[in-house]
Amino acid sequence: MNRQAVLTWVAIAVLAAVSAGLGWWLGHRVLIPAEKAPPPGVTVVKEGDLLPLLVLPELESGEPFTVSGPGRPRLINYWASWCGPCREEMPALDAFAAKQGANGVQVIGIALDVREDALAFQRQVPVAFPLLLETAGLADSSVRLGNARGILPYTVLLDAQGRLVKTHYGAFPDAEAVRRWAAD
User: Fold this and answer.
1) In terms of residue numbers, what domain contains 10?
2) 146-173 pLDDT, tens per residue?
3) Burial class (CB within 10 angstroms; exposed 0-12, middle 13-18, buried 19+) of 158
4) Which residues pair with 108 in a beta bridge?
């Protein structure tokens, strides 16, 4: 290769690196919303705090389901039928849940959605773990559990005593990623 060709390839590599960096920066500054303060009067659970009483209706039956309190560790995933990344993530969560057994982490999905739309989603992307329903809003339980960006999917991990351990914005790519996150 002659000197001109080498310089051309170096210039292309530098331009590609700068473009990738700029794309990453813009994606994080523009595409990921900034955190917002909760509405007045809404208390946000912090890491290490116990989740206050949270009872929501099961998606299919409408029966009350208690999310909070002592028991198994729980992974709570917030989703909606219109959320593409939620649709892609559901099989990973279901595979993770299937490997947990009776004493492992219990996966619970909470649809921030309209019941009919969430039921249609469930028929298209069936899962074996409990699915609950809540109306999305400024003070829904995802906000009270730290979703300050309003992003879905949003996931929280509770320990066996019902304390908030950590949160995660965005979709998990596979069951192994869920396992690693829940184990750390």
Assistant:
1) 1-31
2) 999 999 999 999 999 999 999 999 999 9
3) buried
4) 76
Q: Are 81 and 121 in contact (CB under 8 A)?
A: yes
Q: Which residues of 47-79 are buried (b: 16+ CB within 10 A; e: fewer)?
A: eeeebeebebeebeeeeebebbeeeebbbbbbb
In this structure, how many other beta carbons lie within 10 angstroms of the beta carbon of residue 116?
Answer: 9
Q: Where are the alpha helices (DSSP H) in 27-148?
A: 84-98, 115-124, 141-144
What's the pLDDT tens digit per position in 114-149? 999 999 999 999 999 999 999 999 999 999 999 999
Do 112 and 65 share a structural domain? yes
* ω into 73 cis (within 30 of 0): no
For the record, the structure tokens of 4 come out as 């001109």
The answer to whether position 37 is within a domain reads no
Residues 6+ apart with CB under 8 A from 46: 146, 164
